[in-house]
Amino acid sequence: MRKDSLKPIQMMTLTVGAIFGVDILYGPRAVASLAKQDAWISVLIGGILAIIIGSVYYFLASLYPDKDLPEIFVLVGGRFFGKILILLNSFNTMVYIALSLRIFAQALLMFLLDRTPIYVIVILMALVSAYSVYKGIYTISGVIDIIFPVCKLTIISVIILSLPQGDISALKPILFENFGNVLKGSMASYYIFTGFSTITYTYRYTENKKGTYKWYLAGLIIPLILFVGLKIATLMVFGQEDVKSLVFPTLTLTKSVEFTATFIERMESTAAILWIIIVYEAISMFLFISVRNINVLFNVPSDKSKYTVWLLLPIIIFTAVIIKSGLKVFEFFEYNRAVMMISGSAVVPVLTLLSYIKKKRSRNRI
Amino acid sequence: MRRILLSFLVISLVLITGCWDWIDIEKRGYVLGLAIDDYESISQEGSSSDQKEKGPEDKKKFEQMELHQGQPIYALTAQIPVIKNSSIISSNSVGNGQGPATWEITQAGNSFIGMNRQMQSRTNLSLYYEHLQVIIISENAARKGLENIIDFFVRDPEMRRRVRIFISKGEAKKILQVKPFIDDHAALYISSIPENARKSSRIIAKTDLGEVIKFVHGGYDFVLPMAESTENEINASGGAIFKGDKMVGWVSEVELEAIKMMRNIYIGGVLTVAIPDTENATATLEITKSKCKIKPVIEKDKLSFDLTINITGNYAEEVNYHTHGQLNEEFLKKLQKAYEREVEMMCRRTMEKLQKEYEADAIQLKKIVQKEEPEFWKINGKNWNEIYPASEIRINANVNINLVGLKK
């Protein structure tokens, strides 16, 4: 592999890394309140929707193989409108990173580091992620490649090991007068796949475009399967009533797994380390996106562009620690992500259509 | 310059590595068991265990705390191991081996976190609940309801959902004060008793905090294991019946066996019947598998249930009757019928008690109706408390004797 290029298979690891984030800690909690025992069907539908919209994102990226989303915004939407889109996207993404950092810190405070000040956790995580972004997408993808199998195996282990404690009847009755709620829940589930949009930033770095879509699709299907598995496991172990009231269902699920008379009595300490890495993956990816947005927005020269991340960091850290109420953080996070996904799902298909028409016309002219 | 910077970073990595939240292991007070008593009843009766100890008045004073609001409701006792007196340490001649192996520290109050924090003013250890094995709740506290009790345990990140729960006949603290013959700590002793549920059907295998939370929040009735003690022994057979979050009564060991069979939580045990056409002769079946199929039946808006219990076991013992190599299929068939009758009778008697006396759905038929007959539940769910006691329950048992042991 050349230093400045990614392999198609890395589209899978990067996409999976971007999709799992703090959602691995608390999961699509709102889905259980909406769809109750059918919450796993909502996650399934939300994931399928993400695959469809994600394919549109991929198609847009493939129309401009040497450009990323902010550059496409400017190219297709024009300088003024394009930059407004970049500005909105940058705002949403930065808030997303900040609130992800905060939720991650809250989870760590709850389960591991009860006396460490929240800002210390936020700053450390932000610094580690920023350093990867400073080193570039190749460093991020390299780190994600190394940790990918371990992280995903941990999630699979949590699902499998918790199932014997579960009650399959917790999933019944299936779809009984609940289809409307399942559909409502599927929108909330769709939002957890936010990371699929990163393809429009990473695609340009793939050296060989052949087979990229296949790997990108795998990058969408793996989180879909694991999220559905986690949802089924949490519903079976806790029941729908209890899941609704849990702040971090996945973490609580990990704490529920115990082995009798074996050398590993509990798995949460091992899992906790990997949760940190999983959150790091997503934060690094979104930080990379923010840097690209800002660089295009302000036409930062390429030799200075890698320093942007250090300028963004104080703003992100400040946003992460400024909110006083721990519960409000979740509300803001959900709201911001909904705006991000709805606007993205509306703008990108239109942009893709315009780009396609534009490309077709220019080809006809030739 | 680059090398100096790199060396500085490497050295600082070694020097500043540490944890903000560190606590030395010897400074932690590992709480192994908790006992929750109803304050009103123990203050009226007077704690029998305290009378034996030196200076009970001073101790009583320490057990009280100034409250921000209201009056004490519960008395919380935490069992902490005294490491220097544990048998492992003393056998290695490190500790002195003198004195009690555990410390039971009691605090009265009206919030569990408040009582827990108040205990910190009486110990130089930092109380740590990650290794908590058991919570014993007294009958009187359980009759007041579990929802108030479990709230702290659900919220606190140190608590674990696999912690076992028992209901004590009488004072819960007394269970923790048992001096076991084998273990050092009563909490470890009682928490490992359910592991024998495969051998004895009179113990409930799964009775953890997670299950209780699920049942209380889901609005289901349930059964929890009973615990009673002598000075050195704990007996955990029998059960406490809960309607909602409140305890409503006890069931005997045999009734508990029937509940386990009907609720599909029976994982092993024995069943003894009188051998037909004999006098005082009995035959015992070692049950290896028990499965209960529950089918709700709705006829003319009336709900009833068909319970089919399929049991597989091995012929284990005969008393006052000896086959002497003549054990045959015909005899086993006769016995199977006797076992079936016994199971059906046990279950009917237990259901009668649950439906008529306690009106508690410890078999969780409600869950079956919710899941299997959602249409009926949607219309009639709100009247479940009236429907359940009036529902007809038909019980049918099928017993299959598989092996006969090493002797025919």
Description of the molecule:
- With 366 residues, chain A is an all-alpha fold.
- Chain A has one domain (10-352): Amino acid/polyamine transporter I (Up-down Bundle).
- Chain A is built from 15 helices and no strands.
- Chain A has helices at residues 9-19, 23-26, 29-35, 39-63, 69-77, 79-111, 118-135, 137-162, 179-191, 199-202, 212-245, 249-256, 268-297, 308-322, 326-365.
- In chain A, helix 6 (79-111) runs antiparallel to helix 13 (268-297) and helix 8 (137-162) packs antiparallel against helix 13.
- The longest helix of chain A has 40 residues, at 326-365.
- Chain B is α/β, with parallel strands linked by helices.
- Chain B folds into two domains: 25-251, no CATH class; 257-403, Nutrient germinant receptor protein C, domain 3 (GMP Synthetase, Chain A, domain 3), CATH 3.30.300.210.
- In chain B, strands 2, 3, 4, 6, 7, 8, 9, 10 and 11 form a nine-stranded mixed beta sheet that branches. A four-stranded mixed beta sheet of chain B has the order 12-13-14-15, with helices on both faces. A two-stranded parallel ribbon of chain B has the order 1-5.
- The termini of chain B are far apart.
- In chain B, 38% of the residues are buried.
- The mean pLDDT of chain B is 89.
- Chains A and B meet through helix 11 and helix 12 of A and helix 11, helix 14 and helix 15 of B.
